[in-house]
Amino acid sequence: MTKPIYVLNGPNLNRLGTREPEIYGSTTLAEVEAMCRQAVGSTPLVFRQTNSEERLIEWVHEAIDEGAGIIINPAAFTFTSLALLDALKMFGGPIIELHISNIHRREPIYHRSYVSMIATSVMAGFGVEGYPMAIRAMLARLARAG
């Protein structure tokens, strides 16, 4: 069986569709998950969201043992969590850091990502359409790695 791609989402992303729609749009996280499942095809997908840093790190640990790749939208933990960075450093496969908004066009506090220090690739500013784009990019990367 093929190892799954993990799509991990951090705090407040469960509020997509209602949270700052001028920045994040009106698409819900359930709709984003459906977009990802359609894009991934027959490859197994683990799609999760948490508001807990501890749980997010535990899921990274799970992906270390069971996953082929990680697509992560760490949300606010992007800019605050050395613990998340340390967990991601242990992952041997590709990591795509994903942000719905272009974090570099936002307030300066959003410009320094700890996750970018370890991410294979970074995607930002594509809106929720970035999720299926990230899935396709991950599938291509994994296919090249063979």
From TrEMBL:
Site (Transition state stabilizer): residue numbering on this chain: R19
Active-site residues, as the UniProt record annotates them: Y24, H99
GO biological process: amino acid biosynthetic process; aromatic amino acid family biosynthetic process; chorismate biosynthetic process; quinate catabolic process
Recorded metabolic or biological pathway in which this protein acts: Metabolic intermediate biosynthesis; chorismate biosynthesis; chorismate from D-erythrose 4-phosphate and phosphoenolpyruvate: step 3/7
Pfam family, one: DHquinase_II
Role: Catalyzes a trans-dehydration via an enolate intermediate.
Listed name of the protein: 3-dehydroquinate dehydratase
Organism: Paradevosia tibetensis
